[in-house]
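Tutorial handout. Part one gives the primary structure; part two gives the three-dimensional structure as tokens.
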Amino acid sequence: MKKAALLLLFVSLAFAFDISELLSHIKTDDIRGEFRQIKQISGFKNKLISSGNFSLSGGVFEQNTTKPVNLSIKVDENGVFEFDGKNYNKISPLFDKELFLNILNLNLDALKSDFELSLSGDDQSWSIDLKPRNFISKIFENITISGDEFIRSMVLNETSKDVTRYEFFDIKAGF
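Part two.
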């Protein structure tokens, strides 16, 4: 019986998928594609849905919403900017740009200081659950990121019971 239990433990460890394998496999830079954002606000029946295209390159995330309205934003280490047709203008000084970029880049070393990380799946279909352990727990209950070679979805469950889901598709790397 002990031999069977040890063999089972050894086999499960041999096939375990870990964070280093994920990070060596996933592409989070020089990518572009399409997105859909679905926001369910607590107490409201209808969801807010927007869509458009995005790019992530060199630590800069750009999102161009095309439906239901045209809106372009950029997030980099200097903040969040909205495009007015000619220039990018800084908006929302309260937005945590570092947290946002760390999530999109799967910078798990940086995220470990603020979240408990739980990885499941394999390199073809994985999911990371981020459970806040400090002041972020006042905003988010948890954040779930899932994908394959790319991040395909992010679900932000807020303490207010609002839920925001980002879906990423038609992703291309190396543009």
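Part three, for discussion. Helices lie at 2-14, 19-25, 97-104, 108-111. Confidence is low (pLDDT under 50) at residues 4-15.
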